[in-house]
Amino acid sequence: MSLRRLLSTILVLGGAVLLAAAGLHYLRGYQAQSDGRRDWGLMRASNPLPRRPPQENPGISAPPLPALTEANAPPYPYGKPVARLRIPSAEIDSIVFGGANQASLEKGPGHIPGSEMPGEETGRKNCVITGHRDSHFRHLGWLRKGHRIELETPAGRQLEYRVVSREIVKPDAVRVLQPTVKPRLTLITCYPFNYVGAAPQRLVVVAEPVSRHPS
């Protein structure tokens, strides 16, 4: 076998390996979303919207529920479904998983720990979700000001947002992760979308709530 033919064979085999690896990556993501939708449905069925109990004595208000503290707060749900994200204009309908590590992001968009959880109302106010530009957030760049975003919470509430801004930042722009004065949903992915290798920038899409109502 000539050297040229040997090199051609090596390149063909290398390309086949890369294609197989990419296919396996997308297959795992598809399967994780399928499993996530099933788990999300089971979670929603076992966690219906709370209903206001009837008041036999309207003049007497019930005592407030105790607030969660770090001591009694549930553990962070790494790798578990925490929301369902729908963005019609970007053809996105994905289960969001807790955590922004590689394992969670292979499953789907990931909620960044430390930011406000979907459906929470805390002093952080900024719910941050990130995703890969070559899979679940491949169309995030289609979003423009005014586009609608829906976020379904584990309690069954449909949170509706409208995009108010988008910007390109450096990877170390931690300000986009920090608590904010007003409630917001922040979506992040790598940028540019067609960049080969580790992308040097981040696309940040910010949306603010329009209404909050039960499903």
What does this structure look like?
The chain has an eight-stranded mixed beta barrel with strand order 1-2-3-4-7-8-6-5. The protein starts with a helix and ends with a strand. The chain has one domain: Sortase (Sortase, Chain: A, Beta Barrel). The chain has 215 residues and is of the alpha+beta class. About 10% of the residues have low confidence. It is 23% helix and 28% strand.
Task: List its salient traits.
2 helices; 215 residues; alpha+beta; Sortase, Chain: A; single chain
* Form type: globular
Count of domain modules: 1
Total beta-strand segments? 8
**CATH fold call:** Sortase, Chain: A
Helix/strand-derived category reads alpha+beta
Taking all Cα atoms into account, the compactness measure Rg is 21 Å
Give the biggest sheet. 8 strands, mixed, barrel
Estimate what percentage of residues fall within beta strands: 25-35%
Rounded mean pLDDT is 81
> Which stretches are low in confidence, meaning pLDDT under 50 for 5 or more residues running?
49-69
CATH first level: Mainly Beta
